[in-house]
C-alpha cells in the first residue's frame, strides 16, 4: 500500500510502505544514496542533448545553437578551434558541423568534419552535432562513419540526404535515397545511442511535390526516430511560424529550431540563395541592392534584420531556441545574440577548468593542477581512460614528449609563428640570464630588450590569467633570479563562488585554494631549497624532479593534495584540482620536453642558444610547492627568499659542496 | 636502464626510464594515483596488526595492549562493552579476549568470547585478538570457529593449547595436541588471513621438560607461522629480559610482549598463581601478607610494583609494547599506564565519529549525521554492506524498528533500568507539554518537576556532547515550545583540527561544519515552517517526514549535503558527515520507532501516558535543517523564531486551515 495522504498543497512525496510500516527505498536501490565522490555539478553535464533541450524549454529558458562548416586548411582548423573557444563562452546549447562528401569528411585529417566535431566535443567542451549525408553511400560506409563518431565521443547526428552528385541521380533500391533511410539505419544499428536531428523546410523542399507533401516527409522522418528538427534558413518570421503551426497540426511534437541566417554580405547571400533555391523577399533586396558594395552596411542591416525576426519568433511564445548559420564568422551572430540578450558570457564556470563534452568525460571532476595551462594536452594524454581521474598513464609510446607528432602536435602547437616566437624569446640567447629575462617579461607583460612583448611561453600559450595577476609582483621578483615559474595560484580562504576572478560553481557557495607555485630552477638552488624546506614541515608540501626522473617529495604515501575546493548549498564537497605526486612524474616529461621542442628547436643545432636551452633542460629541476595553511598569507615567497638568503651566505657554500 | 645518480644525501628517488627517456610509473599501475574519494586518514586503519606493531616499534613509539575475559552474564556483557569504550579511549594497540571451552566460547550468545570479540571490533572500533584453544577439539570444529571469526571481521588469533580437561589427557594422533598444531592448521587452511599470536613462558612452561626445551617449542611455534608472542605473567623485570635475550639468541626475531599483571587483590593473586603454577617472589609476599585484608593497600602496592617493573622493561630499550592482564578491571591498569605516560587519551579523533575496526569498514569515511548518537545502530543496520557508504538499505525484515530483538536489542537497549527511565521521563504524562518538559530538562541538565535529572533520551543514551553544549541556550528555548531536538551541530568556519571540542583528524588541518538541527514537531508547526522556509532558499536545506513516509525536501536531486569536512596538509578533502535524503528515510523508521519501543512501552497499553506518546508518534513530523552558509551565524534559530511568529499571527490561522 502507498501511504499517500492528499494534502492541500499537493506536494508531499510518499514512500511505499509494506504492512509492517517499514520503508523500502524510493527506487529499486539506494546504491548511490550517500556516495562520497565529488558530485556532478550540473545536470547539463550528464543529460543528453534532447533532454537538455527539453529541460531548457520547459523551464522557459531561451537558448541558441551555432552551425559551422569544416575548414579547408590546417591553419583554418587552428583558427576555427580558437573560434569554438571564443563562441563557446557565449553559452550555445550545441554547435553543429556540416558534412561535405567531396571534402573527405569522415577521415582523420585535421580538417575533416569528423575531426573538427571531435575536437569541439573533446577539447573545447562543446555539445556537438555532426552532420552526415547518405546519398550515394554504401551501408557499410555509413555504419563505419557512425561507429567512428561513437568512438570519438560524438552523440548527435544530423541525418541528411545530401545533394545528389550530378543530374543523373536515381533512387537505388538497396541504398540510402532519403534522410529517412539514414534515420532508420541509425536507429536500427545504434538503437538509442545517438540523438538525431533532421532538416525541415519552411517553404517546402525544392524537390518536393508540394509543401504539404514535404510536411508529411518531415513527419515520417520524426516518426522514424528523429529527436528534433532544424529548419532551412528563411527571411520572414511568419514563414517559420506558419510552418511550425502546420507541423504541430499534423502531429510533429518534437522541438523545431528555426535556422537563422544573418545576412553578412552580398556575395554570400547570393551564393546561399542559389544553393538553397530560395527567393529573397523584395523588402530585403530593395534595401540591399543599393548598398551591395558596402560590406559594413550590409552586415549592419543583416544584424538588424535578424534581430527583428528573432524577436518576433521569441515573442510568439512558440520558439525557445534559435539556430544560427554562422558561416564560420563571429561578429554578426554574436552581435545578434547580444542584442537579443542570449549571449550569456557568464564569468562563472561550473568548475575551475573547462569541462570536456565527451560522454565518458562529462562526469570528470578532478584534474591535476599541472596541466592548468595545457588542458587540451591533458585531455589528449588521458583520452583512453575509462574513468577519471583513475586512469593509467601511457608509457613513452604516448606522443606527449620527444617527437611530438600528428594530431597531437597539430592541436597543441603554438599559435605563433617561428619568427614571432624568436622575437619574444630572443633570436640569440647569451646565457641563462637571457632565459630569466624572457620569463620576467612574460610575467610583467613588458617588452623585452629588443622591444617585443612576450605574450606566451612554451608552457603558457596565453597571457597571464587574471588570477595569476594577483601574484605578479612576487612572481617578477623570483623569475628575475632564476626561479622560472610556469604555474601558480594564490591561496583563497572562502571567497563567494560568484567572485569574478576566482569564483566557480553554483551561486551561494564558497571557494577555497591552497597557494601553489611551480617552477624550474638550477640544481644549486634546489640544494638550498631542500635545506630551507625542513623548516616548513608539514606546512609546505613539495615535489622536486629533474629530467632524469630523480625526485624528492614529502607527499604523504604519494597521495594527492587537494588545492582547490568548493562548498555549495546542499551538495558534497567539490575538489576539482589536486597536486598529485604520481601524475607530476608524467607532467615532468611534458614540461621538460617543451624546453627542447618549442624553444630549443627554434635555433640551429649546436648553436649557443640551443645549447643554453639544452643545458637548462638537462640540469634544472622542476619544483612544485603547496602551502597547506590556506587561511594564512602564503609562505611560499618566504621559502624562496630563505633559499636565496641561504645561497648568499658563505656557510652554505660548504653545505652545497657537501651535497654535491 | 635506471637513471639513479648517487648523491651525497642519498635520498633521491628515481623513476625507471626506457631508452626514449620516458617515465613509466613507479609501480605497475597508477590506478590509484589521483583518486578523488575521501582518503584514509591513518595508515593504522588499513594496516594489519603485525604491521602496526612493526611500525610503532620502528618509530620508537611505546604502546600497550589489554586482555579481557568474557563476561558470565548479559548485564556483565553490557558493562564490559562500556569498559571497552572507556579503556579504548586510552589508545591500546589491541585488546584480546580469552577463550574458555567450558563457557560455549564460539556461540552466538552475547557473553561468548566470539561475540564479545566481534563487538569490540565492529562496534567499539578496537583491534582485537581472539584466543582459541585447540586441545580436545576436532579439526572440523576449529575450522568452524575460524571461519566464523573471519566472517565476523576478526583478523587476529591467539593460538593456544588450552588446559587439558582432566588428568588423563593423552596426545591424539590426528588431533590438536599443542598450540603449534593450531598455528599450522590456521596457516594451512587460512593462508595469511589471520595474524597469529602465541604464548611464551618466561620461566618455562610448567609441563615442559626444561626451560631450554620450552624455548625451542616457542621457536617452533614462531617458525610455524606465529607473528608475535605474548608472555605469561612474571614478577621480576629480569625474568622477562633474560627470557627475551634467550629467545633472540636462538633466533626468535618477532615481537615478544611482556604480560604485565598488576596485583589487584590478595585472592586474585593467589588464584592466578595457582592456575599458572608460578611462584610469587619473597620480596612481594613479604609486603603483601601483612596487608592481605586491605584491598586498597594491596592495589596501591600492585600499581607501584607494576610501574616499577614496566619502567625497567621500557628503559632496557628492548621492549616497546606492554601487555596488561586487566582481569576486566579498569582502575589499576589505567593508573599504571598513566604513571608510565602511555595512557594517551588524545581528545583528537581521526574522524568525528568512532571508526569500526572491521576489515571491511576500516576505510569507511563518510556516514549520515542521523546516527551520530547511535553509531552502534548504524553499524548494525549496515553490517552487510560491502562498500561504504554505497550499500543497500535493508527492508523491514531488518530489525531496526518495530520489534527490536536479539543481538540488536541487546546491544542497543538503554543502559538504564525501567524505573530509572520512568523517573527521568515521567511515570505519568499529562499531555504533550509533559513530553516537552522531558526534552527541556535533558538539554538543561536540570532536574524535572519530580526532582530527577534527565540523563538520556530514547535517541541519546548519553548526556549532551560538549559540542552540543555550545547550543544549549537556544536548544532549551525551542524544546520548551515543542521543537523536540534530537540532533544538532553548530556551524564551524575553519577551526584548527586540534581544537579540543570540535577538532578531529591530523594536526595542522582545519575543520568546518554547517549548522544542523533535527527535531520532532507537530504538523501545525510544520505547516508554518514550510511557509517560512521559502524565505530561506537556497540557504537552508530541509527534509521533513512523518511516520507514514510522507516527506518534503529541497535536496538537489536527492544528493547528500556534506555538513562536516576537514582540510589537512598534503591530503584530499575529508568529508566524514553528510545529510543524506535517502538514508534519512531509513533513519526516520528508527527515530519514530524509538518513541514507542523505548518510551511508550514503559506504560500500560491504553494508558493515557502511552496514548500521548502514540499520538506524537503518529502525528508529529521529523525535521532536519541545514544552514549552508557556514561562515555566517546560523540562521536556523531565526527559522524557528519565524515559524513561531507566523503561528502567533491571526493571518496564519487562515493559511493553516487552508493547508489542512
TrEMBL record, chains A, B:
<comment type="pathway">
    <text>One-carbon metabolism; tetrahydrofolate interconversion.</text>
</comment>
<dbReference type="GO" id="GO:0035999">
    <property type="term" value="P:tetrahydrofolate interconversion"/>
</dbReference>
<keyword id="KW-0285">Flavoprotein</keyword>
<dbReference type="InterPro" id="IPR053806">
    <property type="entry name" value="MTHFR_C"/>
</dbReference>
<feature type="region of interest" description="Disordered">
    <location>
        <begin position="1"/>
        <end position="53"/>
    </location>
</feature>
<protein>
    <recommendedName>
        <fullName>Methylenetetrahydrofolate reductase (NADPH)</fullName>
        <ecNumber>1.5.1.53</ecNumber>
    </recommendedName>
</protein>
<keyword id="KW-0521">NADP</keyword>
<dbReference type="GO" id="GO:0005829">
    <property type="term" value="C:cytosol"/>
</dbReference>
<keyword id="KW-0597">Phosphoprotein</keyword>
<comment type="function">
    <text>Catalyzes the conversion of 5,10-methylenetetrahydrofolate to 5-methyltetrahydrofolate, a cosubstrate for homocysteine remethylation to methionine. Represents a key regulatory connection between the folate and methionine cycles.</text>
</comment>
<dbReference type="InterPro" id="IPR004621">
    <property type="entry name" value="Fadh2_euk"/>
</dbReference>
<dbReference type="GO" id="GO:0106313">
    <property type="term" value="F:methylenetetrahydrofolate reductase (NADPH) activity"/>
</dbReference>
<dbReference type="InterPro" id="IPR029041">
    <property type="entry name" value="FAD-linked_oxidoreductase-like"/>
</dbReference>
<feature type="compositionally biased region" description="Basic and acidic residues">
    <location>
        <begin position="42"/>
        <end position="53"/>
    </location>
</feature>
<keyword id="KW-0560">Oxidoreductase</keyword>
<keyword id="KW-0021">Allosteric enzyme</keyword>
<dbReference type="InterPro" id="IPR003171">
    <property type="entry name" value="Mehydrof_redctse-like"/>
</dbReference>
<dbReference type="GO" id="GO:0009086">
    <property type="term" value="P:methionine biosynthetic process"/>
</dbReference>
<comment type="subunit">
    <text>Homodimer.</text>
</comment>
<comment type="similarity">
    <text>Belongs to the methylenetetrahydrofolate reductase family.</text>
</comment>
<feature type="domain" description="MTHFR SAM-binding regulatory">
    <location>
        <begin position="348"/>
        <end position="648"/>
    </location>
</feature>
<dbReference type="GO" id="GO:0071949">
    <property type="term" value="F:FAD binding"/>
</dbReference>
<feature type="compositionally biased region" description="Low complexity">
    <location>
        <begin position="14"/>
        <end position="28"/>
    </location>
</feature>
<keyword id="KW-0274">FAD</keyword>
<dbReference type="Pfam" id="PF21895">
    <property type="entry name" value="MTHFR_C"/>
</dbReference>
<dbReference type="Pfam" id="PF02219">
    <property type="entry name" value="MTHFR"/>
</dbReference>
Amino acid at each position: 500500500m502507498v501511504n499517500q495522504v492528499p494534502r492541500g498543497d499537493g506536494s508531499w512525496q510518499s514512500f511505499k510502505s509494506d504492512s509492517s510500516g517499514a520503508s523500502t527505498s524510493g527506487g529499486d536501490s539506494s546504491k548511490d544514496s550517500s556516495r562520497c565522490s565529488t558530485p556532478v555539478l550540473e545536470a547539463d553535464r550528464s543529460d543528453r542533448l534532447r533532454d537538455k533541450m527539453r529541460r531548457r524549454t520547459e523551464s522557459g529558458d531561451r537558448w541558441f545553437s551555432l552551425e559551422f562548416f569544416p575548414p579547408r586548411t590546417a591553419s583554418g582548423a587552428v583558427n576555427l578551434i580558437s573560434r569554438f573557444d571564443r563562441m563557446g563562452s557565449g553559452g550555445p546549447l550545441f554547435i553543429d558541423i556540416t558534412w561535405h562528401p567531396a571534402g573527405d569528411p569522415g577521415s582523420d585529417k585535421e580538417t575533416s568534419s569528423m575531426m573538427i566535431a571531435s575536437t569541439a566535443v573533446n577539447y573545447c567542451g562543446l555539445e556537438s552535432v555532426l552532420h552526415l549525408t547518405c546519398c550515394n553511400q554504401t551501408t557499410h560506409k555509413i555504419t563505419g562513419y557512425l561507429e567512428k563518431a561513437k568512438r570519438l565521443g560524438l552523440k548527435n547526428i544530423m541525418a541528411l540526404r545530401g545533394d545528389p552528385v550530378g543530374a543523373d541521380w536515381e533512387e537505388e533500391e538497396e541504398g540510402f535515397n532519403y534522410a529517412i533511410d539514414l534515420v532508420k539505419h541509425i536507429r536500427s544499428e545504434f538503437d538509442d545511442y545517438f540523438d538525431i536531428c533532421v532538416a525541415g523546410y519552411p517553404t517546402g523542399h525544392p524537390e518536393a511535390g508540394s509543401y504539404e507533401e514535404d510536411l508529411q516527409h518531415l513527419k515520417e522522418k520524426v516518426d522514424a526516430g528523429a529527436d528534433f528538427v532544424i529548419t532551412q534558413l528563411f527571411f520572414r518570421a511568419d514563414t517559420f511560424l506558419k510552418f511550425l503551426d502546420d507541423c504541430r497540426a499534423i502531429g510533429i511534437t518534437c522541438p523545431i529550431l528555426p535556422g537563422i541566417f544573418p545576412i553578412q554580405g552580398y556575395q554570400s547571400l547570393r551564393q546561399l540563395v542559389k544553393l538553397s533555391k530560395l527567393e529573397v523577399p523584395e523588402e530585403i533586396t530593395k534595401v540591399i541592392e543599393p548598398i551591395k558594395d558596402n560590406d559594413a552596411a550590409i552586415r549592419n542591416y543583416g544584424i538588424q534584420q535578424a534581430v527583428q525576426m528573432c524577436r518576433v519568433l521569441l515573442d510568439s511564445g512558440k520558439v525557445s531556441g534559435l539556430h544560427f548559420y554562422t558561416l564560420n564568422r563571429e561578429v554578426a551572430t554574436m552581435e545578434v545574440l547580444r542584442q537579443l540578450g542570449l549571449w550569456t558570457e557568464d564569468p562563472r564556470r561550473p568548475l575551475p577548468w573547462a569541462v570536456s563534452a565527451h560522454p565518458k568525460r562529462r562526469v570528470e571532476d578532478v584534474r591535476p593542477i599541472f596541466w592548468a595551462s595545457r588542458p587540451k594536452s591533458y585531455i589528449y594524454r588521458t583520452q583512453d581512460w575509462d574513468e577519471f581521474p583513475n586512469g593509467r598513464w601511457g608509457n613513452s609510446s604516448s606522443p606527449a614528449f620527444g617527437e611530438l607528432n600528428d594530431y597531437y602536435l597539430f592541436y597543441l602547437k603554438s599559435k605563433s609563428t617561428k619568427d614571432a616566437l624568436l622575437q619574444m624569446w630572443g633570436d640569440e640567447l647569451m646565457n641563462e640570464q637571457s632565459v630569466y629575462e624572457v620569463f620576467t617579461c612574460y610575467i610583467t607583460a613588458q617588452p623585452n630588450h629588443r622591444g617585443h612583448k612576450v605574450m606566451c611561453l612554451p608552457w603558457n600559450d596565453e597571457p597571464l590569467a587574471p588570477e595569476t595577476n594577483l601574484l605578479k609582483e612576487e612572481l617578477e621578483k623570483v623569475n628575475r633570479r632564476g626561479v622560472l615559474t610556469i604555474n601558480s595560484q594564490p591561496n583563497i580562504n572562502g571567497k563567494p563562488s560568484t567572485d569574478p576572478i576566482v569564483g566557480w560553481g553554483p551561486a551561494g557557495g564558497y571557494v577555497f585554494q591552497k597557494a601553489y607555485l611551480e617552477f624550474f630552477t638550477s640544481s644549486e638552488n634546489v640544494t638550498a631549497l631542500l635545506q630551507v624546506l625542513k623548516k616548513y614541515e608539514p606546512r609546505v608540501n613539495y615535489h622536486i624532479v629533474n629530467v632524469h626522473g630523480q625526485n624528492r617529495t614529502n607527499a604523504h604515501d604519494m597521495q594527492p593534495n587537494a588545492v582547490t575546493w568548493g562548498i555549495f548549498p546542499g551538495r558534497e564537497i567539490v575538489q576539482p584540482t589536486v597536486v598529485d605526486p604520481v601524475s607530476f612524474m608524467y607532467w615532468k616529461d611534458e614540461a621538460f620536453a617543451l624546453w627542447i621542442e618549442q624553444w630549443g628547436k627554434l635555433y640551429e643545432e649546436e648553436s649557443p642558444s640551443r645549447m643554453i636551452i639544452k643545458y637548462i633542460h638537462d640540469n634544472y629541476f622542476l619544483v612544485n610547492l603547496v602551502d597547506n595553511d590556506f587561511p594564512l598569507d602564503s609562505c611560499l615567497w618566504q621559502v624562496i627568499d630563505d633559499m636565496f638568503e641561504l645561497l648568499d651566505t658563505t656557510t652554505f657554500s660548504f653545505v652545497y659542496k657537501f651535497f654535491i
